[in-house]
Amino acid sequence: MVAxxxxxxxxxxDLKDPQLFIAGLSSIFTRLNLTYxxxxxxxxxxxxxxxxxxFAIALQIKAxxxxxxxxxxxIAIGVGEITFxxxxxxxxxxxxxxxxxxxxxxxxxxxxxLAIRTGNEKFDAEINIGFKLCEIPVSQWTKNTAEIVSLxxxxxxxxxxxxxxxxxxxxxxxxxxxKRSHWGVLKEFDTLFKEKVKALNL
Length: 202
What we know:
Blueprint lengths: L1 E8 L8 H14 L3 E5 L3 E6 L5 H16 L3 E8 L14 H13 L6 E4 L3 H18 L4 H12 L5 H8 L3 H11 L1 H16 L4
Parallel strand pairs: 4-5
Antiparallel strand pairs: 1-3, 1-4, 2-3
Helix pairs in contact: 1-2, 2-5, 4-8, 5-7, 6-7
């Protein structure tokens, strides 16, 4: 069982510098050591051997793009199998790829910017409600709050004072930005998500 994340940049045609989001995607994927492909000018695909990490990965991608230029992204997560191992992600086949690609097409016509499809309808319905709720604070992230989220993922063992020193701000400012990001709720949901994905029997 793998997870395929297929995504694109929202309103990419309106962005003044396309190279900004292309460089941004490449840098976050490289930093997270992900297997990925960029295609179509503003789209990407990622393959994860541990599907339970897909929500956290999606949040880090979103945070990084907002941090570098208030760039919003849409991501569809497909969980399933791979039946054909092509040389490129774009030539591979299987239920995980099919679900992810078709789901991205579906959510392009809605206001949902993060969704999952596993083939388990009960699981999908429950998690997608959670994703919709999580998207509310994420859609309101500023550059500063997204920067804090990125730091929290990059340096999970540092306290607020140490995180502040990384970017030259005080501990109380770090605390305020963490609250504005709704980090606590997002981490709680991520813990729940990991447990439910690990219990999936597809």
